[in-house]
Amino acid sequence: MNLSYRIAWQMFRLMYSTYFRWRIYNSERVPMEGPVILASNHASFLDPPLIGSALPRGCNYLARASLFRHPGIGALLRSWQAVPVDRDGAGARGLKAILDRLLAGGVIILFPEGTRTRDGKLQPARSGIGLTVIKSDAPVVPVRVFGTFESYGRAVKFPKPKSIAVKYGRPMSFAALRAEAKTCSKPRLKEIYQQVADEIMAEIAKLERKLDA
Questions:
Q1: Which fold has domain 3-206?
Q2: Per-residue confidence of the chain (213 residues) as pLDDT tens digits?
Q3: DSSP assignment of 155-182, as one string?
Q4: By 3-state DSSP, what share of the chain in percent is helix, strand and coil, each rounded to 5?
């Protein structure tokens, strides 16, 4: 963590622990070294910093490309090594930036659903995360956030002081599918991308808000 990241990390930790009375489960499951993909459900704008600030190592966040054009916020995002993405998805440049961060041994936070839930329920996974997983060698840690929809969902104008939590699952390996993807047909490759996404989402769904699950 550089200075600007550490200051933000400490501020978010203070906010989550006091205003939201957060709980953190199984953060030790996230490897402390090497590339990692954190794949989480997405219910609120609170989710990305919640997932990252619960960990003792720095994370790379995705941010809308247009934000980087503003001098202040753009400089801050660059100092955090955030990844610029298009409005409708990562795009080719965004994918390359994500893979570069992983190749350098970084942590990337991704949301298989692609966007925030509208009703608080888990949504079907999109194939985009499957493409990223297959093109990298990073383990995937499923993550589930709780309470952020009730606190600051789409219909909420200002965050409510609801109790929130974040839980990390066991790392997933996709070695067999990665090997198959190197030689399979294009139709099968698309199936693999969706299969990976669905398997990740299934693991997210299994995480429950208790310590031993």
A1: Glycerol-3-phosphate (1)-acyltransferase (3.40.1130)
A2: 889 999 999 999 999 999 999 999 999 999 999 999 999 999 999 999 999 999 999 999 988 888 888 888 888 888 888 888 875 555 677 889 899 999 999 999 999 999 999 999 999 999 999 999 999 999 999 999 999 999 999 999 999 999 999 999 999 999 999 999 999 999 999 999 999 999 999 999 999 977 555
A3: T-SS------EEEE---B--HHHHHHHT
A4: 45, 15, 40
pTM above 0.85, yes or no: yes
Domain ranges of the chain: 3-206
Q: Taking the CA atoms of 1, 143, 197 and 177 in sequence, report the sign of the dihedral they define.
A: positive
